[in-house]
């Protein structure tokens, strides 16, 4: 199969798992070549073991430029068709996002509530709905071109955790569907 996805993830990895499962079931016609995490203790690590997907541990170190370069080289060696940031909590540098095709799933309706606390910020601001956005990644914080977004209503008793879980249910379906559509339009570079 010539369509290869490389996933970046920092957390529990439920989005990554949705992508991997869709691929393994044949619902997504692409192979997940590996997952990279900057958090060696994160839930995504054991998920990859269970799902039999290679996990690359790349924890942050003192030299950020060197870390960026290592990430670049790892990605280049894998030659993915698409890089998917699925809960990856690091900003990717300009060279990375202009060299590789990178998308990100974010838990708000961008451009509202960019950054690491999007769900909390939406709750604090008292809006009645938030949602999820999938966008191309540029060198800014959740500023890249929007591909697709879906609304999720905020309910009266929502806590950050409860609301985030409801958003993530939508995110999982949307990321799989969006990857599938994008792969049909992207020029394949992986042999
Ligand atoms: C998602 O809501 C994603 O948008 C955000 O982090 C969450 C990742 O969840 N950046 P999980 O680790 O895939 O469960």
From TrEMBL:
InterPro entries, A to Z: Formyl_transf_N, Formyl_transf_N_sf, GART, GART_AS
GO cellular component, one term: cytosol
Record's catalysed reaction(s): N(1)-(5-phospho-beta-D-ribosyl)glycinamide + (6R)-10-formyltetrahydrofolate = N(2)-formyl-N(1)-(5-phospho-beta-D-ribosyl)glycinamide + (6S)-5,6,7,8-tetrahydrofolate + H(+)
Key words of the record: Purine biosynthesis, Transferase
Molecular-function GO terms, alphabetical: phosphoribosylglycinamide formyltransferase activity
Key word Thylakoid present: no
Gene3D superfamilies in UniProt: Formyl transferase, N-terminal domain
Domain Formyl transferase N-terminal residue range list: 5-178
Known EC number: 2.1.2.2
Entry protein name: phosphoribosylglycinamide formyltransferase 1
Source organism per UniProt: freshwater metagenome
């Amino acid at each position: 199969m010539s369509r290869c996805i490389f996933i970046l993830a920092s957390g529990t990895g439920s989005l990554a798992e949705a992508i991997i499962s869709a691929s393994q079931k044949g619902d997504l016609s692409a192979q997940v070549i590996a997952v990279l995490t900057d958090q060696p203790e994160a839930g995504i690590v054991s998920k990859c073991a269970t799902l039999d997907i290679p996990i690359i541990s790349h924890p942050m170190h003192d030299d950020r430029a060197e870390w960026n370069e290592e990430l670049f080289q790892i990605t280049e060696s894998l030659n993915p068709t698409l890089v998917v940031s699925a809960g990856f909590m690091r900003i990717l540098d300009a060279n990375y996002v202009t060299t590789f095709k990178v998308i990100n799933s974010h838990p708000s309706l961008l451009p509202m509530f960019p950054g690491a606390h999007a769900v909390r910020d939406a709750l604090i601001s008292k809006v009645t709905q938030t949602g999820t956005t999938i966008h191309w990644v540029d060198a800014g914080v959740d500023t890249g071109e929007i591909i697709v977004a879906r609304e999720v209503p905020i309910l009266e008793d929502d806590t950050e955790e409860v609301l985030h879980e409801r958003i993530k249910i939508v995110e999982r379906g949307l990321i799989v569907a969006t990857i599938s559509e994008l792969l049909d339009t992207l020029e394949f570079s992986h042999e």
